[in-house]
Amino acid sequence: MLGTPTQTWQDRRRAAARREVLAAAWEVARRDGLGGLTLRAVADRVGMRPPSLYTHFASKHALYDAMFRQAWSEFDERFAALELPADPRAAVHGIARFYVDFALADLPRHQLMDQRVIPDFTPSPESYAPSQRAMERMVGRFRALQGVALAEADVDLFVAAVGGVVAAQWSNDPGGDRYTRLLGRLVDLLADDLGLPTTTPREDP
Amino acid sequence: MLGTPTQTWQDRRRAAARREVLAAAWEVARRDGLGGLTLRAVADRVGMRPPSLYTHFASKHALYDAMFRQAWSEFDERFAALELPADPRAAVHGIARFYVDFALADLPRHQLMDQRVIPDFTPSPESYAPSQRAMERMVGRFRALQGVALAEADVDLFVAAVGGVVAAQWSNDPGGDRYTRLLGRLVDLLADDLGLPTTTPREDP
DNA sequence: GTCTATAAGTCGATAGAC
DNA sequence: GTCTATCGACTTATAGAC
């Protein structure tokens, strides 16, 4: 605790206000689309005048930046807490399912995290860090699976293919299951290719 | 030819002007991003005043709609003209390579065709038709492959997985080949799963 | 320090002269 | 068909009350 400036007095109000603006921004993005987000709508929702937002965020891009950082941080936290089965193949299915569920739960969040939707917006290095941490954690949990030595390219292929299911689902059948129902088959395909063992035999349908 | 109103007199000028505006819109989108496209920038590029664009397109969304239609029409035309090897597996590789090359050649075009980047923009039925035609042609060429009976889900899985390579390439390594170099391996994986025969043995490296 | 008030510049879009 | 003029909405920034 020592060494931290004890300005906690009104620092908490600032942080709370920031969180409030951020939460309002997500609500507006879900209602009006990520690219349709306006500072006026955010201010309305949080009960402020638009210029007052500049007290908390230097620009609209800074707001997007904070949203990007928060989204990947939440992904990383929840993925870190995700309990996986001991069976390697079941674990890979669990990772894929977690990834797909997270990406399909929130369209603007998915667009911000995984696409390049906002022109001229590039995450700052500080906000890009959580996404790198999340990816490293993913590689780490893959490599911790018993019975196979994974190369970088193996994880890349997995991420690309599973991400493709998400993208196809969102753009061709939003709200449905036309592509997500193929996820199990796709993951088995990839797992077979990696020679991933199954210590527990698969259940009968 | 009979039955067509012979108004071709100044109808051609109208059509030419429309094409010119459309071409300018693509150039602006490639320069400023799809979401960063403005009617002023389009008007500047085509040597018009912004309100004059409304003579040719009823709204900005109508312009996006025409771009969407043009992109899928061009895809369908070029795919129809694509010559594929007789060997079924080589043909599938050809289809995948064509799809990926087309999607990676132009970011705003890819965003417009395959993602939901513009808030509140949904293609009109008339503009959606070419994309359906293209998908049906793709299914048709898959089914024409000798030696295997393909279900709808098989094509869906192929489209999703290959589309995932495109999305990952654009968002994680634009301009590189980190994901596209995995395409051959992915397609072989899918082809193996479908039991696709190889009449011609694969070449040695 | 945080807010209100306000203004400049830009966006999509419309009305009406020629 | 194209123009001028203009509207309402949005982003951004500054000035000043509390």
From TrEMBL, chains A, B:
SUPFAM superfamilies: Homeodomain-like, Tetracyclin repressor-like, C-terminal domain. This is HTH tetR-type domain-containing protein. Residues 38-57 bind DNA. InterPro entries: Homeodomain-like_sf (IPR009057), HTH-type_TetR-like_transc_reg (IPR050109), HTH_TetR (IPR001647), Tet_transcr_reg_TetR-rel_C_sf (IPR036271). It holds the Pfam family TetR_N. The keyword Ribosomal protein does not apply. Residues 15-75 form the HTH tetR-type domain.
